[in-house]
Design goal:
Layout (H helix, E strand, L loop, with lengths): L2 E9 L4 E5 L6 E4 L2 H5 L2 H11 L8 E10 L22 H23 L14 E2 L2 E2 L4 H17 L11 H19 L5 E3 L2 E3 L1 H28 L15
Length: about 240
């Protein structure tokens, strides 16, 4: 018997970006909605392996929301506020998000620290996107992931102090988010730079952003191995294992 997994999509007509509601930060992409939906089960399996869960198979995706956007969705630009993002969040669930973001941070750092050729440039990745030049080395991707941590916090907080170190910045963001959560749960919708945010959306986007760029890091490592530049690499997210 198939198990239903809910998916919410954002599209501009040129590409589709889908979020798996039961798996915070899990996503699929495709030029068409059918192409994206065909990737749901594999994405769910990869995600559950990363979390140390027994993978569920025979999943049937159900589209529960479609948001039409003018953003460059084909480049993973996103603004969607999921209906799920607005729901009440129990403290147990909030803490699960926090632990996932910590785990994701450690996974990113594992890839980065174990990379031998951090500044090796993958010229095939060079192109322009909505946020500028695509980072084409693991060093640049890591720096981009790090810089975005404060961006997500700034969507619902203007009181931000600079901290040193990737994990230190992450821990600071999570403490600030917890303080906001304890004050208002997930009851408030913030509008920042014309985009709607809630605490749950910030938490979800933290994990999603880690995963989408970690996948690029591992793709570069996979290419380095194929070219004989390295013997092995770390893939804690299980993207290609």
């Amino acid at each position: 018997m198939s198990e239903i997994i809910s998916v919410a999509f954002e599209t501009n007509g040129k590409g589709y970006l889908g979020y798996l509601l039961d798996l915070p930060g899990a996503f699929v992409r495709g030029k068409t909605i059918d192409q994206a939906l065909s990737k749901v089960e594999q994405e769910a399996i990869i995600y559950q392996k990363w979390r140390g869960l027994r993978p569920r198979y025979n999943l049937k995706p159900k589209v529960v929301q479609i948001h039409y956007s003018s953003l460059m969705v084909e480049d993973a630009d996103s603004e969607i506020l999921l209906d799920f993002d607005k729901e009440k969040m129990e403290e147990k669930e909030f803490n699960q998000y926090i632990e996932l973001i910590k785990k994701s941070g450690f996974s990113i750092l594992t890839i980065y620290k174990n990379t031998e050729l951090k500044n090796w440039l993958d010229e095939t990745r060079r192109r322009k996107t909505f946020y500028g030049d695509v980072p084409i080395s693991i060093q640049r991707i890591f720096e981009h992931i790090d810089s975005v941590q404060y961006y997500y916090l700034s969507r619902i907080s203007t009181d931000i102090e600079e901290k040193k170190g990737f994990l230190e910045r992450r821990e600071y963001c999570l403490k600030k988010l917890k303080a906001i959560y304890l004050r208002e749960n997930n009851s408030k919708i913030y509008i920042t730079d014309h985009e709607k945010w809630t605490i749950r959306k910030v938490l979800r986007r933290f994990i999603w952003h880690d995963r989408i760029h970690a996948k690029s890091m591992v793709k570069i490592l996979k290419k380095q191995k194929w070219m004989g530049l390295i013997d092995c690499y770390q893939d804690p997210f299980n993207f290609f294992t």
